Amino acid sequence: MKISHKYLVEAIVFISYVLFAMAWVGGAASMQQIMSSMNVDSLASASFISGMVTLAKIVGTFGAAWIAIKVGIKYAFFIASLLITIGILTPFSPNYELLLLSRFLMGLGGAFMVVYFNPIVMHWFPVKERAVINGLNAVAFNVGTGIVLWKMNAINELTGSWKMSLIIFSLASLLFTLAWLLVKFDPKQDASQQAEGEEESHYSYLDGLKDKFNWIYGLTYSGLLAFYICLFTFYPEAGISQSKWVIGFGIIGTLAGMIYSKKVAMRLPIIRWSGAMIVLTIIGVSFSTVSWLQTLSAIVLGFFVFFPITALVSIPHELPKMTGQRITVVFSLFYSISYLVSTIVLWVFGKLVDINQGDFTASFILISIVSVTFFIGSFFLPETGKKAEKEELCAE
């Protein structure tokens, strides 16, 4: 039996990343139990447990393209899925070192997987469908996170413990890993999807590092990513519990962004104005002392964090002479650059809390400033939707 229907393939990809999110955030949600079992009493040290997944993403996203070139996208995605299942070791870890290793390997798998979304989408879907599919993949992490934030206690009650819940998440990942082996990849189909008159050209890591677009693209996203990681790692420790609203309305924002990006060709306006709203609402969530205003800020923040993501991830797909190899390198560098910056910010954030004896004020100022990169980056990214919009107007 071979799986060759594109929407079934997308379902496997989508659910695989949902399960990764559940395993990662489930570990973060169980941080108090993990800290207790490992005798970890420093917030900076505790954040390093979650940070191992982020660190793995730097290494993984940078090396993902090389693996894909060597073994092909199908088996590269299989390796990614297999690594994610190693998260099953987390609940069995007898010491801090093995816990870090299991989180690192699971994070490595997640890093590979997020890079492979784009060549898979390019392989299976024509250009006109890619914005919607990219948006769907972008919301996968939110769905998994939302399930854990809203239902982790219920899941734990059902399974008997947080450890058993993490084990079940990993076993489910294993099932979808095996299902992926049934997917049929046709090289001719890949050529027909990406070609559209363009010839295949070699695009190496060195070419990617020399390409200023990749640096602008990664740095634009880095501030937003840094905040998003801090939101789940530190904000609950600061007594801010509105993160669930960010996730819930993030899903709505992603769906709205998919519809908007399908109907409106221009990419930068939605990124720019969403970036401005993100900064304002991060300040509201972080510094407001009025509960209803903090909740309202979280709701608006969640929507605008994910509303522009479909447009953002569509930009490389719409660049001229884009090929499967090039887009793999582009997103490899995109995620490695953004995760490198966010990991540094994550560590500094936790360190500032420790230095200030548990006070989060300086850390919240830091993350508010860092989040401005999304807004600033919109002035330097290329507008790839302009040509499509002009052609549409001419056709009318």
TrEMBL record:
Highest taxon in the source lineage: Bacteria
TM regions (residue ranges): 7-26, 46-68, 75-92, 98-119, 131-150, 162-183, 215-236, 242-261, 273-290, 296-315, 327-349, 361-381
Entries under InterPro entries matching the protein: MFS (IPR011701), MFS_Cyanate_Porter (IPR052524), MFS_dom (IPR020846), MFS_trans_sf (IPR036259)
Keyword Transmembrane among UniProt keywords: yes
Molecular functions per Gene Ontology: transmembrane transporter activity
Membrane in keyword set: yes
Swiss-Prot/TrEMBL keywords: Membrane, Transmembrane, Transmembrane helix
Domain Major facilitator superfamily (MFS) profile intervals: 9-386
Record-given protein name: MFS family permease
Protein source organism: Thalassotalea piscium
